[in-house]
Design goal:
Elements: H1 2-8, E1 23-28, E2 33-35, H2 37-42, E3 47-53, H3 61-69, E4 72-75, H4 80-89, H5 93-99, E5 103-107, H6 122-133, E6 141-145, H7 151-158, H8 169-174, E7 178-182, E8 185-186, E9 192-193, H9 195-206, E10 225-226
Parallel strand pairs: 4-5, 5-6, 6-7, 7-10
Antiparallel strand pairs: 1-2, 1-3, 8-9
Amino acid sequence: MRLSAEILLTRGHIYPATTSNIELEAVMEDGSRVLGETKITASRGRIKELLLVPPDVEPLPQTLEAIARADVISVGPGSLFTSLIPNLLVHGIADAIVNSAAVKVYVCNLMTQANESLGLSAADHICALNHHAQVERIFDYALINRTPVPIELKAKYALEGATQIVADLEAIEALGVCPVLGDYLEEGDVARHATDKVSRDLLELASQAPPARDRTGSHHTVKAFTRR
């Protein structure tokens, strides 16, 4: 962990979800199983569920402490099944996030990803994360890009079947998550997030309390808002 921080020149600390030796196993929609991250990424089938092998690994105490002390917890962007979901499968991590007083934010991907999220909308991504965490709702907010992908870049991604992720705002709101619309696409040869805008909005959300919830954990009023 210390070496990783030195290599990446981070100002904070890097804590993995677990230090246990694990493998990823995907259950596909056709019922078949694929073991190993490389094989999962290369698979042509649609992933239905992701599992850890072995399933009962323990988190680092430092990781749980950091989650408990956090002002804001952000998840994403990243590969839905091979980067984001595995962290939530480690015993205690999802509960620690839900129980933390931090503002929880999902940073939605810009494009769908071959073999991981083709055809999935922004709300579908959030549903998959909630499902694997085995909780009704993780996030208070979701940062959603509103900038259209340029035609040339769209054609490039279409060659692998990828498209710009649909921002289905009503479906996101129905999940109790407040969508935050922003111009998060940075122009270039590949679709990347404009990190300065994402960072700015995460810091602003961190400075305010999460939206009010009722006793069931649902928000009283959830409406999308737009960042300038």
